[in-house]
Design a protein that fits this description.
Belongs to the RNase PH family. InterPro entries: ExoRNase_PH_dom1 (IPR001247), ExoRNase_PH_dom2 (IPR015847), ExoRNase_PH_dom2_sf (IPR036345), PNPase/RNase_PH_dom_sf (IPR027408), Ribosomal_Su5_D2-typ_SF (IPR020568), RNase_PH (IPR050080), RNase_PH_bac-type (IPR002381), RNase_PH_CS (IPR018336). This is Ribonuclease PH. It catalyses: tRNA(n+1) + phosphate = tRNA(n) + a ribonucleoside 5'-diphosphate. This protein is α+β, with helices and mostly antiparallel strands. It has a single domain (about 15-235), classed as GHMP Kinase, N-terminal domain (Ribosomal Protein S5, domain 2, 2-Layer Sandwich). The protein contains 6 helices and 9 strands, in the order E-E-E-E-H-H-H-E-H-E-E-H-E-E-H. It has helices at about 75-80, 85-100, 105, 125-145, 175-180, 210-235, and strands at about 15-20, 25-30, 35-45, 60-65, 110-120, 160-165, 170-175, 185-190, 195-205. The strands form 2 sheets. A 5-stranded mixed sheet has the order 1-2-3-5-4. It has a 4-stranded antiparallel sheet with strand order 7-6-8-9, with helices on both faces. A hairpin with a 2-residue loop joins strand 6 (about 160-165) and strand 7.
């Protein structure tokens, strides 16, 4: 029995509320159980220097966690004067994931920055950030299309992410913190809406895992991603 009472293949309750920021070109609040993340998209009419005069656009991300997003206060990274390694790793993952679902030539020489701010954490913050980040990106791109700034939709496919792991000897979908903290195997799966793999992060936390178990986790991830993509599409209309 999972601590939450969920079935092995059951996601936490998921909701995506759009247009939560007055000023951002795209925004949403994604809730996956008790993990809540605000995602905003900002369009900039410039690209990083290494893309100048290439005709290619860029999507990048920044990630942060509020001090009381967790059970005890975490010091702001700004107060420490630098980002931690975990933060850098997560925001690079978000950027890589979202770029995999976009035609950068159709975007043109502009950059879209996705900011993901965790206001409450209960496991799976990077996955929620990617899933919500795509919604913010979709809304921002819609504004470019509506304004006629671009004529071809650069978004190739949905991008979403979900965690899976081995908890109490069983493959489970969408780990919350009580499961994640003791799971023998933990993995994050980033897929497109058409179930193409973008990135898989897996590790044996307390015990090794078999190839068959990995296949079981991928099956769970595909099921979860399909449900998340449906929620994304419903949110953006």
């Amino acid at each position: 029995m999972r601590p939450s009472g969920r079935k092995l293949d059951q996601l936490r309750a998921v909701s995506i509320e759009t247009n939560t920021s007055l000023h951002a070109e795209g925004s949403c609040l994604i809730r996956m159980g008790n993990t809540h993340v605000i995602c905003t998209a900002t369009i900039e009419d410039k690209t990083p220097p290494f893309l100048k005069n290439t005709g290619l656009g860029w999507v990048t991300a920044e990630y942060g966690m509020l001090p009381r997003a967790t059970t005890s206060r975490t010091r702001r990274e700004a107060a420490a004067g630098k980002q931690g390694g975990r933060t850098q790793e997560i925001q690079r993952l978000i950027g890589r994931a979202l770029r995999a679902g976009i035609d950068r030539s159709a975007l043109g020489e502009r950059q879209i920055v996705i900011d993901c701010d965790v206001i409450q954490a209960d496991g799976g913050t990077r996955c929620a950030s990617i899933t919500g980040g795509w919604v913010a990106l979709r809304l921002a791109v819609n504004k470019l299309l509506k304004a006629g700034i671009i004529t071809s939709d650069p978004l190739i496919d949905n991008v979403a992410a979900v965690s899976c792991g081995i908890y109490a000897g069983q493959p489970v979908l969408d780990l919350d913190y009580p499961e994640d903290s003791v799971a023998g195997t933990d993995g994050n799966f980033v897929l497109t809406g058409s179930r193409r793999l973008i990135e898989v992060q897996m590790s044996a936390e307390g015990s090794t895992f078999t190839r068959d178990q990995m296949a079981s986790l991928l099956d769970l991830a595909e099921k979860g991603i399909a449900e998340l993509v449906h929620t994304q599409n419903t949110a953006v209309g």
